[in-house]
Amino acid sequence: MKRAIVLLSGGIDSTTTLAIAQKEGYQIIALTFRYGQRHGKEIECAQKICRAMNVLSHIKIEIPARLFMGSALAGEKKLEVPKSGNVSAHEIPVTYVPARNLLFLAYGIVCAESYGAYAVFIGANALDYSGYPDCRPEFLKAFEEAARCGTKCGVEGKPIRVISPLLNKTKAEIIRLGISLGVDYSMTHSCYDPDEYGRACGRCESCVIRKRGFRDAGIEDPTQYIDDVQ
Questions:
Q1: Which of 10, 3, 6 lies closest to 164, judged by CA?
Q2: What span, in angstroms and rounded, lies between the C-alpha atoms of 61 and 58?
Q3: Is 121 helix (H, G, I), strand (E, B) or coil?
Q4: 144/160 Cα distance (integer angstroms)
Q5: Helix (H, G, I), strand (E, B) or coil at 68
Q6: Cα separation of 62 and 120, whole Å?
Q7: pLDDT at 126 over 90
Q8: Which of 49, 74, 71, 72 is nearest to 60 (CA)?
Q9: What is the CATH classification number for the domain harbouring 58?
Q10: Which range of residues forms the domain containing residue 200?
Q11: Mean pLDDT for the chain?
């Protein structure tokens, strides 16, 4: 069977992307990253998802937290996570992690060339996102071209594709698609700032987008939010 690399965070988008890649007939090597993120619960979710979805191999990659500065989500000195309830794609928020997708995709290309895979799937989205520059189509296109020029398989005429099947879909469309593919979203995690029990805060940008997505999709949100138990 043909193989593909899937960047798997444990959230809605990456899990749906995994299901899409499997539907297209790929055997999956999933990459999950620990990079000092505040919301480490997502790594546990990624592990459960890989087991439940019969992923061929799950590789967990450690990146030093001290590499990142100036973000509310990662690094040794994290900023406060905004809880205003406002979501805007017109400015880059403090939840942006410097060049995160650039780094993750580089690992994906390394793994793809090493394992004979010619596709790297990423759940990047240019509609329901928080203004991150490394989720834009022009970035993904430029990265794919760089990978073509900088890999043995690329210069030999067998370039590795960077596939972002959710790029122009709303969160509601993504959720409906995932449900049609049998995705169990109760296994996923989106919150930027969960409590000590892993419950979602319900007020960060990611929680707001998640809530709105399920509401607009007309599907019950399986997430356990802190407010639900207070």
A1: 6
A2: 10
A3: strand
A4: 7
A5: coil
A6: 19
A7: no
A8: 49
A9: 3.40.50.620
A10: 3-229
A11: 92
Summarize pLDDT for 59-116 with one digit per residue, the tens: 999 999 999 988 998 887 788 898 865 555 567 888 889 999 999 999 999 999 999 9
Read off the tokens for 88: 């805007």
Closest by CA position to 6, among listed 33, 36, 29, 38: 29
Strands 161-163, 27-34: pairing is: unpaired
Question: Is residue 92 within 8 Å of 52, Cβ to Cβ?
Answer: no
Single out the residue of 3, 9, 100 nearest to residue 47, CA to CA: 9
Q: Nearest Cα to 210, choosing from 194, 196, 197?
A: 194
Alpha-carbon distance 127 to 101, whole Å? 17
* Exposure on the CB side of residue 98, measured as CA atoms within 13 A: 11
Read out DSSP for 82-105?
Answer: P-S----SSS--TTPPTTHHHHHH
Q: How long, in residues, is the chain?
A: 230
Cα separation, 105 vs 128, in Å, equals 20
Tokens of 172: 């509601």
d(CA 186, CA 84): 25
Counting the structural domains of the chain, the total is: 1
